[in-house]
Amino acid sequence: MDWSDLLAAFALYLVLEGLLPFLNPAGWRRSVLLIAQIPDGRLRTVGLASMLAGLLLLLITRSA
Question: How far apart are CA 9 and CA 3, in angstroms?
């Protein structure tokens, strides 16, 4: 893996993270407030599932 790949991935992450607050700030704020009410255990489960899905997708794209 090249450092430029990591920086490109981080740049894409920042673009995607900024998309919703830019397009719909009120809806994004409501979503954040709802997420803040979810119990820690469920957030950890969702975070773990997201990390595993990302890792699997990365492995699939890098092996092709």
Answer: 10
- Which sequence spans correspond to the domains of the chain? 3-63
Predicted model pTM:
0.73
Q: Which of 12, 13, 29 is nearest to 21 (CA)?
A: 29
Residue 54's closest CA among 21, 22, 16? Answer: 16
**pLDDT tens digit string along 16-64?**
999 999 999 999 999 999 999 999 999 999 999 999 999 999 899 889 7
